């Protein structure tokens, strides 16, 4: 900040607003640009790859307001928060400095209206209640509208670190003053590049947090949400709701579910296991390529891709739930034509979760509403195709299926199929939707016929055969008369402009019509904007419903994708949950068999708690020891997430946890063994 008394009124306004948003980069609206000044400009310019300039020794940079969507993701990915400061009054009507206000603060964990690099990756914000006796965690994906909470004592701190690692949140909320405890939690597996957001400690006070949660979700008790006597989980979840209300109050409508995450309800995969087995990121460059997720992800929708990742990182620990998923995959596998037709139809469904989020956040443009309408259009056909499936998971989805035809119909009736991008220039609303708009358009469109009639009458009245009535955007409507015919100009003509070879005139009738048309065009823009906002608000009221539809689309997509994977890669249904034996006949490593040209040589495995408790595996470099170990783990994970597995047959006893520590690491998909990697590192 500065104490410079020579600041202009506009810069004084800037500093007043910046003082309220010290932890964010302030996008300050000046005309057609968002400008940044001082330290904000120095930080943002290199990230956005734009020029850093200065005026009167003030560092500054800026981006066009209509292209801001392409710049914001770069800042959010680097962990910055951005405060959007808009002009909230018409500059023409302003007396003195135009009034400006911050209309929203975008944070890495809440900015779901901003496009992400990978649409199949969730945007999580995690809240941590860190107390002496233990910790609480709440995880929120705004697009899905669900909070999941968990708590434990410090002996289970590794569980907390593992859950944070698997979620890979974009933002971490924690109590002010708890930096030391936070650093310990994030020391080994902290999310790279996540924004750290301290909040007032009282927000994490359990009674206050409980009050906030009950106020948001309703009800008299938290018992119905599984949170009774979970004071640290409640503290984290309540603080998270309070924080979202502060920075993105408009987004609270998206959050409609909360549940307690029971640690024992899933196969436990800690951070080391997820990393070493390369489930979602490879060890070479941290990308999805050559991971188990890469091999099995044949989903065709973004919500489906996000759900598949969640299933992979949280395999089930209930034999009946696993069997239910397997029944669905088996039926889809056997119903080849129906599966392929459904998958083809689902390709027309865009990211319903994020579209609904943008609409609820009042960040959606007309084209987003059209995209939503087009995404809803295939749903009736999906419902018809789904009716021929009989597995329990499909019947459950079919029983609650919602085509949202009323929502699609409202958008179809109101919004043009190819609407304008800007909200204030018209070209959004269809004819026939609003009577007042139709009347104004009739006036605006009558220009050509009016000009032709007026031109004919004036030629007859004046006797000037070359007289022309014209219009341009600079001078509006005018009558043009060439110099030789000027003596015949009537007395009621008012001179408007003199040219070399002609003169331009107005008549009272033409002036009146011009005012009428220009007023109509201005009114059209204002009215279309108002009508669009009404349509958007009406759709926003259906947010929870659209999120439920997206969840069903995602579940259907994942089941069909797992069946497609089984068909393409020759996977079989494993028997899961019978005893403790692990028997795999002609098993294959799912990643290596797809990433190398040579055929994979299948192998067998038999383990149980009786005479085959331990296997000691020896062999030369590149002999397949690490591959064999990992293969067993990957097949168990696939089996317990409800997928089919790469083998001739498999019997898999339920596994509650997988531990893995295989050498340093290996890059087998590119032909480098554990030993080779160690030698290269040594060299």
Describe this structure in words.
By secondary structure, the protein is α/β, with parallel strands linked by helices. Helices cover 42% and strands 16% of the residues. It is built from 24 helices and 22 strands. The strands form 5 sheets. A 6-stranded mixed β-sheet has the order 3-4-2-1-5-6, with helices on both faces. Helix 12 crosses helix 21 (543-569), helix 13 (352-360) crosses helix 20 (508-540) and helix 13 (352-360) runs antiparallel to helix 21 (543-569). The two termini are 51 Å apart. The model has no long low-confidence stretch (mean pLDDT 89).
Write a concise synopsis of the structure shown.
Helices cover 42% and strands 16% of the residues. With 683 residues, the protein is α/β, with parallel strands linked by helices. The protein has a six-stranded mixed β-sheet with strand order 3-4-2-1-5-6, sandwiched between helices.
């Amino acid at each position: 900040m500065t104490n410079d008394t020579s600041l202009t009124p506009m810069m004084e306004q800037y500093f007043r607003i910046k003082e309220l948003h010290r932890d964010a980069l302030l996008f300050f609206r000046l005309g057609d640009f968002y400008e940044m000044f001082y330290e904000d400009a120095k930080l943002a310019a290199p990230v956005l790859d734009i020029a850093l300039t200065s005026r009167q020794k003030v560092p500054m940079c800026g981006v066009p307001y209509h292209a801001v969507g392409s710049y914001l993701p770069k800042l959010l990915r680097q962990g910055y928060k951005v405060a959007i400061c808009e002009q909230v009054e018409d500059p023409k009507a302003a007396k003195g400095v135009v009034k400006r206000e911050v209309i929203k603060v975008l944070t890495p964990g809440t900015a779901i209206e901003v496009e992400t690099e990978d649409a199949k990756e969730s945007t999580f914000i995690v809240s941590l209640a860190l107390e002496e006796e233990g910790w609480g965690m709440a995880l929120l994906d705004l697009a899905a509208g669900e909070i999941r909470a968990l708590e434990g004592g410090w002996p289970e701190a590794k569980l907390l670190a593992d859950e944070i690692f698997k979620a890979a949140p974009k933002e971490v909320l924690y109590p002010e003053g708890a930096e030391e405890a936070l650093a310990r939690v994030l020391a080994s597996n902290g999310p790279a590049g996540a924004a750290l957001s301290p909040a007032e400690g009282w927000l994490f006070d359990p009674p206050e947090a409980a009050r906030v949660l009950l106020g948001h979700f309703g009800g008299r008790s938290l018992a119905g949400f599984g949170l009774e006597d979970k004071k640290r989980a409640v503290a984290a979840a309540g603080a998270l709701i309070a924080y979202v209300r502060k920075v993105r109050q408009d987004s609270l409508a998206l959050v409609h579910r909360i549940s307690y995450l029971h640690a024992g309800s899933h196969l436990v995969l800690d951070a080391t296991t997820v990393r070493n087995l390369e489930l979602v990121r490879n060890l070479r460059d941290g990308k999805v390529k050559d991971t188990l997720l890469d091999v099995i992800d044949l989903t065709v929708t973004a919500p489906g891709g996000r759900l598949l990742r969640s299933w992979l990182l949280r395999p089930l620990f209930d034999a009946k739930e696993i069997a239910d998923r397997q029944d669905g995959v088996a039926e889809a596998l056997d119903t080849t034509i129906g599966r392929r037709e459904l998958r083809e139809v689902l390709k027309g469904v865009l990211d319903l979760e994020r579209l609904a989020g943008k609409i609820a956040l009042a960040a959606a443009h007309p084209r987003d509403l059209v995209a939503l309408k087009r995404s809803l259009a295939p749903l009736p056909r999906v419902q018809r195709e789904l009716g021929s499936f009989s597995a329990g998971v499909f019947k459950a989805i079919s029983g609650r299926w919602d085509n949202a035809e009323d929502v699609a119909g409202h958008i179809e009736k109101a919004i043009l199929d190819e609407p304008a991008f800007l909200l204030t220039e018209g070209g959004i609303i269809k004819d026939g939707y609003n009577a007042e708009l139709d009347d104004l358009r009739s006036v605006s469109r009558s220009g050509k016929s009016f000009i032709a009639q007026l031109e004919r009458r004036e030629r007859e009245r004046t006797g000037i055969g070359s007289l022309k009535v014209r219009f341009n955007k600079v001078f509006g409507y005018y009558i043009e008369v060439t110099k030789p015919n000027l003596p015949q100009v009537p007395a009621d003509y008012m001179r408007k402009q003199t040219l070399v070879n002609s003169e331009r005139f107005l008549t009272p009738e033409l002036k009146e019509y011009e005012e009428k048309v220009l007023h109509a065009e201005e009114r059209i823009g204002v009215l279309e904007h108002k009508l669009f906002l009404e349509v958007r608000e009406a759709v926003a009221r259906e947010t929870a419903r659209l999120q439920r539809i997206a969840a069903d689309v995602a579940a259907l997509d994942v089941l069909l994708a797992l069946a497609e994977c089984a068909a393409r890669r020759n996977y079989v249904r494993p028997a899961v949950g019978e005893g403790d034996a692990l028997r795999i006949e002609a098993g294959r490593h799912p990643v290596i068999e797809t990433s190398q040209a040579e055929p994979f040589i299948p192998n067998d495995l038999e383990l149980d708690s009786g005479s085959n408790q331990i296997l000691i595996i020896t062999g030369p470099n590149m002999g397949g020891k690490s591959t064999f170990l990992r293969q067993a783990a990957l097949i168990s994970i696939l089996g317990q997430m409800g997928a089919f597995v790469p083998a001739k047959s498999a019997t898999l006893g339920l596994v509650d946890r997988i531990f893995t520590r295989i050498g340093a690491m290996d890059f087998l998909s590119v032909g480098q063994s554990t030993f080779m990697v160690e030698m290269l590192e040594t060299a």
